[in-house]
Amino acid sequence: MHPETLVRDHTIYACVMGSRAFGLATDGSDTDRRGVYLAPTPLFWRFDKPPTHVEGPLEEQFSWELERFCELALRANPNILECLHSPLVEYADGTGRELLALREAFLSRQAHETFTRYALGQRKKLEADVRVHGAPRWKHAMHLLRLLISARDLLRTGRLTIDVGDHREPLLAVKRGEVPWPEVESWMTRLARETEESCHHSPLPPEPDRRRVENFLIRVRRASALQPSPHDEGVQGVVGPRSVGQR
């Protein structure tokens, strides 16, 4: 099966991410689409496994196979967790709605480490830009601040909020380069400190509910295996009566 066919025919969840989901869109903003597809179980019985992710078929579109998506979400990958909390859901079938109902199972205090590690890497890149070019990439600085705000509030409240709300105008001012870099740095440092403090008193559990997610995945895979599908035609003869007892 062609990768784009998996996305077209087997998507269980699709949403819009990026600036439009964050409440930071302007007239020139792209529409970044993300999704999750469920590869039919018989495809895993072959030597050539279905892809764990697919780019396209639309521009600015990226999708993950369900198992890979769950694996990354259990690791508190920031991009994956944010996909599950997008306010702009374009499609969700029954399985997709079950996945959305599992959002809390993926959340844990592990988010502190993953969000902070990602933010630190991005900040080092911005600081390198300042040293080399005299200024950071302001759009990247804006999105780093947004991520730090999201991480702090997640650890404070136990809920992941995507839309920046009242922070929209201050963040867009950063994007336009209207806020001096020292002030932006100070804001980042303060948010990092508040995130660290919030982690110590967070209502989130220490670890995600891996068993609950795994039970969901097993049930979905089993249901897919029981569905009539052209993908298992190549293996039917192997388990037929004529093959029993043969070596």
Provide structural commentary.
With 247 residues, this protein is an alpha+beta fold. The chain has 2 domains: 131 residues, Beta Polymerase, domain 2 (2-Layer Sandwich); 91 residues, no CATH class. Helix content is 53%, strand content 10%. It contains 12 helices and 5 strands. Strands 3-4-2-1-5 form a 5-stranded mixed sheet. A hairpin with a 5-residue loop joins strand 3 and strand 4. Helix 7 packs antiparallel against helix 8 and helix 8 packs parallel to helix 10. The chain is globular, with a radius of gyration of 21 Å. It starts with a helix and ends in an 11-residue tail after the last helix. The C terminus is likely disordered.
Summarize the model shown.
With 247 residues, this protein is an alpha+beta fold.
Task: Note the main attributes of this structure.
2 domains; Beta Polymerase, domain 2; disordered C terminus; 5-stranded mixed sheet; alpha+beta; 247 residues
Outline the fold blueprint:
Blueprint: H1 3-10, E1 11-17, H2 19-22, E2 32-37, E3 53-55, E4 61-65, H3 66-74, H4 78-84, E5 89-92, H5 94-101, H6 103-106, H7 110-133, H8 138-157, H9 168-175, H10 181-200, H11 210-225, H12 233-236
Parallel strand pairs: 2-4
Antiparallel strand pairs: 1-2, 1-5, 3-4
Helix pairs in contact: 7-8, 8-9, 8-10
